[in-house]
TrEMBL record:
GO terms for cellular component: plasma membrane. Transmembrane segments: none annotated. Residues 55-170 form the DUF218 domain. The lineage of its organism: Bacteria, Bacillati, Actinomycetota, Actinomycetes, Propionibacteriales. It comes from the Bacteria. This is Vancomycin permeability regulator SanA. InterPro entries: Cell_Envelope_Assoc, DUF218.
Length: 215
């Protein structure tokens, strides 16, 4: 009878490959987090101590089917409005996904701000801010921003500020924590945020072109 080869060596090799891949992936993630977040150190502030800037860029988030901003987006917009009311900024740039007729984050953001008393003529809208990198690069190259305050949730803030500063913007950030009461979406967002550092690092290294609206 022929000898039957044991599957143990094959399984051992497969296990080593999986373990090695996991280690390399983990190291890559840690390196990406350190690279992006490192640029944000010292530039994340509270509403009261953030340095004044010409513009506050409010990053988009989910809008409900009826056109009303989600609680996460409403909290960002309230922070942006407060920055304007306190004289910390002169203009607001709302940046989000507005490329589809049936879904327009910037339109919802403008409506919310003007309903809250912000003059429409101080609001700029970027309808192709499809992700944080796009929003930051387009703020610089298309909207002429050189110095700004970025407004988003606190778990997202270091990545956003880090991306902006790597792109050459004098960026500071103010983050919202009020929606932590929504524990499940906050936790999901926080976990996803860590993985998003890999894409952020890749975007910064490649310096890919941002998305542009269809004409």
């Amino acid at each position: 009878m022929g000898r039957v080869n044991s599957p143990a060596p094959l399984l051992d090799n497969l296990g080593r490959l999986v373990t090695g891949g996991a280690v390399l992936g983990g190291l890559g993630l840690l390196a990406s987090i350190g690279y992006v977040r490192g640029a944000a150190v010292g530039h994340v502030h509270t509403l009261e101590d953030v340095p004044a800037a010409p513009v506050a860029m409010i990053l988009g988030a989910k809008v409900h089917p009826d056109g009303h901003p989600s609680s996460f987006l409403s909290a960002r917009l309230d922070l942006g409005r407060r920055l304007f009311e306190l004289g910390k900024v002169e203009r607001l740039l709302v940046s989000g996904d507005g490329l589809r007729p049936e879904y327009d984050e910037p339109a919802a953001m403008i409506n919310y701000l003007t309903d809250a008393g912000v003059p429409e003529d101080v609001i700029m809208a970027d309808r192709a801010g499809l992700d944080t990198y796009d929003s930051c690069l387009r703020a610089k190259t298309l909207y002429g921003c050189r110095e700004l305050i970025i407004v988003t949730q606190t778990y997202h803030l270091a990545r956003a500020v880090g991306i902006a500063r790597h792109l050459g913007l004098v960026a500071h950030g103010v983050g919202d924590r009020s929606v932590r009461r929504h524990r499940r979406p906050w936790l999901i967002g926080s976990v996803r945020e860590q993985l998003a550092y890999l894409k952020a690092a890749g975007d910064l290294i490649s310096r890919r072109d941002p998305a542009t609206p269809a004409t």
